[in-house]
Design a protein that fits this description.
This is Chromosome partition protein Smc. The protein is an alpha+beta fold. Helices cover about 30% and strands about 20% of the residues. β4 and β5 form a beta hairpin. It is globular and about 55 Å long. The mean pLDDT is about 90. Bound molecules: adenosine-5'-triphosphate (ATP) and magnesium ion.
Length: about 180
Amino acid sequence: MVYLKKMEAHGFKSFADKADISFDAGVTAVVGPNGSGKSNITDAIRWVLGEQSARSIRGVKMEDVIFNGTTDRKAMNYAYVRLVLDNASRTLQMDADEVHITRKLYRNGDSEYYINKERTRLKEINELFLDSGLGRNAYNIISQGEVDEVLKAKPEQRRGLIEEAAGVMKYKLRKKESEKRLEE
Ligand code: ATP
Ligand code: MG
């Protein structure tokens, strides 16, 4: 199974100094006082995986993820997050033991994504994680309230979750895309 080895963040929310957080395979607990940035870690993980909704990462507009300064520290003009994933299992379809995913956002709205050192598009990142059980819409991050949501979900939404887990989502999306092309 692929696992998260490391997260680097710089200029993302409260991470004004470059944060370099390593994880071991297995269980990790993050502890700290209120407001110390624990939830900002999961926000950063969601964000680098392509989160497009500022609200899902507790902001109003996307620019809110950029460190906005404190009384003695000036605001930054970009936010950067990189994940290092252990892919020795080849769960992600790339012939590499480690996969790096990077996202950078500038205050002027320019945004960049990278897979390893290659500049890429969000679509490629989504494709890479599709059916892997990872990715921003997968079930790898479960926040408060989401367990309730699953319980209350309509049957077709619940089916979507099962399909993602079973690994058939990729084929459904491809089918949809080719049907769209046929119509055009
Ligand atoms: P709790 O235990 O209450 O859940 P937490 O450890 O999860 O707290 P976070 O919510 O991760 O804390 O961090 C909140 C902190 O992040 C606040 O101090 C807030 O000011 C800071 N923060 C959020 N966005 C930015 C930003 N753009 N620039 C600077 N600081 C930010
Ligand atoms: Mg929190």
